[in-house]
Amino acid sequence: MSDVARAAGVSLMSVSNAFNRPAVVLPDTRARILAVAAELGYVPNRIAGTLASGRSQVVAAIVPSIRNSSFARTVQGLSDTLADRGYELLLAIADTPERELSSLQAVLGRRPDGIVLTGNTHLPQSVALLRQAGLPVVESWILSEPVIDMAVGFNLGAAAYAMGRHLIARGYRHIGYAGYAPADNSRFLERQLGFQRALIEAGLRDDLVFHAEEHNGFAGGRLALEALRMREPRLDAIFCSTDVFAAGLIFDCQRQSIRVPEDLAIAGYGDFEIAAEIVPRLSTVRTRGYEIGQAAARLILDRAEGREAPIRYDVGHELVLRESS
Amino acid sequence: MSDVARAAGVSLMSVSNAFNRPAVVLPDTRARILAVAAELGYVPNRIAGTLASGRSQVVAAIVPSIRNSSFARTVQGLSDTLADRGYELLLAIADTPERELSSLQAVLGRRPDGIVLTGNTHLPQSVALLRQAGLPVVESWILSEPVIDMAVGFNLGAAAYAMGRHLIARGYRHIGYAGYAPADNSRFLERQLGFQRALIEAGLRDDLVFHAEEHNGFAGGRLALEALRMREPRLDAIFCSTDVFAAGLIFDCQRQSIRVPEDLAIAGYGDFEIAAEIVPRLSTVRTRGYEIGQAAARLILDRAEGREAPIRYDVGHELVLRESS
DNA sequence: CTGAAAGCGCTTACAG
DNA sequence: CTGAAAGCGCTTACAG
Question: Which residue ranges does the record assign to the HTH lacI-type domain (chains A, B) (predicted)?
Fold first, then answer.
């Protein structure tokens, strides 16, 4: 910066102002400074700027995975919104509360202006660390208590409940659930509970539950079919906690010549791209992952820049009924 | 930090050393310092550390998209390797050379210790900026010239060529190509050229080429089928530049009762998870996206930490022959 | 092994 | 509108 100041014949302050408060410096002076800076290939050092100003213009996000279109969409929404507002994204991938804590420690040392977490299942130390840091934090993909600071998501249970009601209304009576259940994770639990609530209200069996080992594999659907049929030969529908399970299940039905939905109805969760294309097209719950990312970024920045922001933001969900159920 | 130093009755230096050069401070002193730090909830300010030391322990990556399992895998490989070595990932998503440049300007201000780019199609200003910054940069998913600094990838053309040879060996004679072709992008061009080379060598028509508007949509396959059949009614095989196109094509064939591979053979590129599951299972080119991310991180860190690193690193590729061709 | 000094490249708050 | 001073929280290089 001092090179630029010297070459342009102005003080450091004027260079700083030329970049950061265009209004405050004379148009001529500013143009000259910018020209010199461009010529010299000067890129302002935002590390020094951060240290001096206490504002990093960086938002950190910790997601469990990006090989799953839901979170990939959220990261995309975050990235787009942050870039628009001149912020950068510091990304950490952590799929357990323990890894989340260590990502948090690493990331906090970078003094981000805010943090986006996934879900509300955290280690107590993580929560303590966050409170002490005192920065805006949004928990995404969940809306229920406890909330550390702000939450952006939708009612996971209601969405699953709605799909349960739909299947029941279509006349299915022996309905299984293919899910995934890491310990104490409310994001997964709420879906299952919402779905079971629909079954219970209708007086149906709600214990046809299968939990896959992995969240992301197509195999989840296949294994669920095997396991659930063993328990209930009259099984006539399966609700999958993700579209990937549902797709795996459909592929398996094709191989076994089980007709969908005639012999077995299938419903998914997520409305991934494949849902609209697979044969038969998949009924699913549309979740707004991109909007979650956008809204999370907006809430963080509003707060970081001293504006008001809601504690909770519901992006909603929607049933998308297609051919599979 | 000064709070910690005071509370522990030592100098700033000792606190710094306790965190950064454990060997240099007495075990007792170090334990006391760490205990005090933990009690106070002290998280070292790495922004100040970066400014003072000139090393940020941050690596930036610019990818065109993450809603495509290839790059998602690369980001995962990058993230895992960086986290293991105590580095953070600054991620930018930019899908055109223009956006790449503006991401670059933003990211360079953060003084990363290295940068990972995708492909070798850049604006001249981007290259100039990078050269001036003088930090380690790796271009990923490409190996061909020109290389700015280092490259990690595999021979895109050879992989496509191999698949072309395979289809020809299987007896297909009217083979189409379903691709995507943003202006001047060598990553896409190399695949197409490699494939066409196989056709030309075999004396087959190499102009059955269809370019989709979008890289990521399932619709690409469907549109290709329509367009290519119009041009060549005897069309007996289609090579898709991504598995997503191939899957979309298979779904469309199911709808139209076109048997795969009997009526039409299909091959993909990428070996996404779906390839092994779809009916029929998809023949494809396995690309090692995760390894690309790992290797890119390794090369950057080796150089950033003063070690030698190769200019070019080939992760290889592999033909995975399944049922669809 | 431990510590006092200088400096990293900016911004803040103030004076001119 | 422009500028000289102080300081952000660390690390470097050196002396003790």
Answer: 1-53
Q: Which of residues 39-58 of A touch strand D (CB under 7 A)?
A: 48, 51-52, 54
Place of tokens 């299968």: A210
Do the beta carbons of residue A61 and residue A75 sit within 8 Å?
Answer: yes
Which residues 119-148 of chain B have a CB within 8 Å of chain A? Answer: 128-129, 132-133
Query: Which of B193, B216, B185, B191 has its CA nearest to residue B122?
Result: B185
Q: Nearest-CA neighbor of B151 among B296, B323, B4, B1?
A: B296
pLDDT tens-digit readout, A136-189? 999 999 999 999 999 999 999 999 999 999 999 999 999 999 999 888 899 999
Nucleotide C11 C1' to residue A81 CA (A)? 26
Residue A39 has pLDDT above 90, yes or no: no
CB B264 within 8 A of CB B237: yes
A53 CB neighbours strand C below 7 A: yes
- Rounded Cα distance between A135 and A55, Å, is 11
pTM of the model: 0.94
Chain D positions with a protein C-beta closer than 7 Å: 1-5, 7-13
Closest CA to A46 of B84, B197, B58: B58
Residue B136 has pLDDT above 80, yes or no: yes
Beta bridge partners of A289: none
* Distance, Å, B3 CA → D10 C1': 13
- Chain B residue nearest residue A64, CA to CA: B76
Residues recorded for chain B:
325
Q: Is A54 left (phi over 0), alpha (psi -120 to 50) or beta?
A: left
CB atoms B91 and A89 under 8 Å:
yes
Q: How far is CA B325 from the centre of its chain?
A: 27
Nucleotide lying nearest to A43, CA to C1' measure: C9
The 3-state secondary structure of A257-297 reads CCCCCCCCEEECCECCHHHHCCCCCCEEEEECHHHHHHHHH
Task: Give the Cβ contact number of residue B227 at 10 Å.
Answer: 16
Count CB pairs under 8 A between chains A and B. Answer: 142
CA distance A280 to A285: 16
Cβ proximity of B244 and B69 under 8 Å = no
Residue appearing with tokens 């040879």? B165
